[in-house]
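Inverse folding, one chain.
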């Protein structure tokens, strides 16, 4: 408890430009690594522990979208993870996050879902000589995201309150460099919150002037993306890749749209994977000189102000040889630059295995 109070005090020294309504949180967590494969089971030397420090800024309806999402919080988090493993070491991470409130926004007892995305630093990543068992982190810098479902009660003793819940944390380098098994942690959390507001009385929430009802014709989206990645065979080398996407979307309301489209993937790393595997007896790879893939997908887009979150499920209709499976999933974070143009960061995975992190630009016509 003393450590949590000290942590809150330390974070507050950096928050010199607080909003008129903001608060700090300090959460300690204790958890487990999800054992998804034989490689992952090699990491299971102890229970991961750590803490999450966060700064949260309340929203009261100054923008119309606030009410549509029950007046969420936006903020920043810093997390420390200790795997208690000589193989995995420690992680230090920074995130941007939103807190979404269930039920009555003005209730004293709150149920909150936090979503955060950011970057993590691994202290002892894979090294062929000194740490060849760490197949979780092939690089020092990794992408990381977390979900936290928590109960929160504020201002129990003056400005001090409590919070407790469940947290899931994913960290990997999105296959920029092999190995990339990643680490998934599920944990219980408990901690304190401290209200930075000048007074902690309930504040009036401003109703939106926009109806949730929203209608648009079908829109055509065109996007190009790229990046670097490496096949799952360690040491085959990093290669650039290119992705072109075309899809239609139909808005259901101000928050949601459905999608139907196709992706073209040009991935030179597939050639490296193919040539290495052809040298191994009984691989059963069919003969080919084609290394591009085409997938069709259905998806959903969730609009949050100028940001949006896309989730897509795809199937390769052009699939030269077996690699990771024909079904894929994609998760995209988009930022609309104006009414048509957008920038996007997309993660493509096959079940629990990330294949690419893609940076790109597109237009919605």
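Residues assigned per position:
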């Amino acid at each position: 408890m003393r450590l949590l109070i000290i942590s809150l005090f330390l974070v507050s020294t950096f928050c010199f430009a607080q909003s008129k309504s903001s608060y700090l949180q300090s959460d300690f967590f204790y958890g487990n690594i999800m054992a998804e494969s034989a490689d992952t089971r090699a990491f299971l030397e102890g229970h991961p522990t750590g803490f999450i420090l966060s700064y949260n800024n309340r929203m009261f309806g100054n923008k119309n979208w606030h009410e549509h999402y029950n007046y969420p919080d936006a903020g920043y988090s810093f997390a420390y993870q200790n795997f208690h493993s000589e193989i995995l070491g420690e992680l230090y991470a920074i995130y941007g996050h939103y807190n979404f409130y269930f039920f009555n926004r003005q209730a004293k007892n709150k149920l909150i879902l936090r979503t955060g995305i950011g970057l993590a630093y691994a202290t002892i990543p894979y090294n062929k000589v000194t740490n060849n068992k760490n197949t979780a982190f092939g690089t020092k810098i990794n992408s990381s995201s977390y979900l936290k479902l928590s109960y929160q009660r504020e201002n129990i003793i003056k400005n001090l309150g409590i919070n407790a819940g469940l947290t899931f944390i994913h960290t990997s380098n999105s296959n920029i460099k092999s190995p990339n098994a990643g680490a998934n942690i599920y944990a219980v959390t408990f901690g304190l919150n401290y209200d930075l507001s000048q007074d902690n009385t309930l504040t009036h929430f401003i109703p939106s002037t926009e109806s949730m009802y929203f209608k648009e014709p079908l829109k055509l989206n065109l996007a190009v993306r790229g990046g670097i990645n490496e096949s799952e065979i360690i040491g085959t080398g990093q290669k650039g890749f290119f992705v072109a996407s075309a899809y239609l979307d139909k808005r259901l309301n101000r928050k949601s749209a459905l999608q139907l489209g196709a992706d073209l993937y040009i991935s030179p790393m597939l050639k490296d994977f193919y040539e290495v595997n052809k040298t191994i007896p009984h691989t059963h790879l069919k003969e080919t000189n084609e290394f591009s893939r085409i997938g069709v997908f259905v998806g959903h887009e969730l609009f949050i102000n100028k940001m949006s979150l896309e989730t897509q499920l795809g199937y390769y209709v052009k699939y030269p040889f077996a690699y990771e499976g024909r079904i894929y999933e994609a998760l995209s974070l988009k930022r609309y630059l104006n009414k048509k143009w957008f920038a996007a960061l997309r993660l493509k995975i096959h079940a629990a295995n990330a294949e690419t992190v893609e940076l790109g630009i597109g237009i919605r016509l």
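The chain has two domains: 2-195, 219-364. The first helix runs from residue 2 to 12.
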